[in-house]
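The material for today's practical consists of a large collection of protein records. Backbone structure tokens are a discrete shorthand for how the chain folds in space. An example says more than a description, so a record of this kind follows:
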Amino acid sequence: MFYARLNESILMKKLIESIKDIVSEINFEVSNLGINLQAMDASHVALVSVNLSPEGFQEYRCDKTMNLGIQVGNLWKLMKCGGNDDCLILKAQADGNYLNIRFENKKLKKSCDFNLNLISIESEHLGIPDTSYSSMITMSSNEFNRIIKELFFLAETVNIETGTNFVSFSVNTESVNGSIRIDSNDSSSQEEMTLIKVTDPVNLAFAMRYLNMFIKATALTEQVQLGLSSEYPLRVEYKLSNLGSLKYYLAPRISEEKDK
């Protein structure tokens, strides 16, 4: 049996909202170690990885490792049926054919109970290595959100460049070129702080449409961490306090020619 309880459903709702436009089907791998999922978009350019720890739930039990195949669009429709302050309970039986989703609101003495039919998904666990990135940027998730939104309307591609103490986001099209630069600072305010650790500077191009989907996770946490290396895909990580983390991986646009 699998059983997980969150006292407030809003975090799970925001999490599903953050991945629903990137992947259409997911395998929730549930075990005594928590809930994990990996899924790639249809173009195999972006990958989503979620790790949720048992310690982040108010109650958690899993007697047997199970793969729960889920259609993300249907899960999102059900998640919207619960209030943000409702308690969320997820249940599934070993070898069962559905995931039970229950919302409870004690103040209103209200409950919502749904069974989401499971699907069979052929998916390969990629075993993402613990990569050492040559450039690590920790910054306000709201500021990252603003930068991507602003540049999204100007170009299809953004170049992310790092130096010893700065990161810049630049675009170059027939009609406009320019950049947004942030220097490293250790402000006590998480909204203003940007920490930059660079052992090897990079200048890589990425598709804006994927980054614009990634920033839907902004509401999950105050900070975002970017990992960049010329040898690996970009990693965009949102840490969910003691519940776990949401990570996006995006391959660079290596075919993009740099300006001559």
Remarks:
- The longest helix spans residues 141-152.
